[in-house]
Write the structure tokens for this entry.
Amino acid sequence: MKWKIIDIEKLLGKKIKKNILSVGFDVAEYSTGVCFLRTSETELYVDKFQIIEISRSKELTIIDKLELYLKELFKLRKTIKKINVSVIEDCHLQYFGRKPNVWTVKILSRFETLVWAIFRKYTDYSYFKQAQHARLAIGFKSRRKKKIEKTIKNNRKKKETVKLQVKNWLKKQFKLNIEKDDLADAFVLALNGLLC
């Protein structure tokens, strides 16, 4: 997929860096989305999308998961010579009812640190950014609080998730049809790395 930089700058109201590779990592325990966005003097294009998947087996310890994740990161790193900007999703503490989800924060922070450590020698500049801040930076505004309902295939009603809203927004604004949630936020994070 390709876009003219001038059109993207107009859409976002921000300047785009030229002649660089920006990689966005939407880090998750089982499925990490990775998006490689590259610019030339006049165009922005998706170099590639990739998913890093880890087994959901209940028998795996946290160390087992980290080992599997490392193995996949090393495979990905072998395909890369140089990254100009790396934007890694920063985890945050979410509250479900009255209890915070501490386990998720712990595991995600470990995975995020591994991403940074594995790619740091191949990257000019890396930083962590929360997904909601990355979305706001490109003009996406969530409708979460309005409790919008969406009909799904089997005619059940379910609350429209922020991830679905992001995918729909990318489809409308960028004509980009992304199936996996993790790849949508990876695109958003990589795009943040291109902003001046």
Summary: Residues 2-139+181-194 form a domain with the Nucleotidyltransferase; domain 5 fold (CATH 3.30.420.10). Residues 151-157 have pLDDT under 50 and may be disordered.
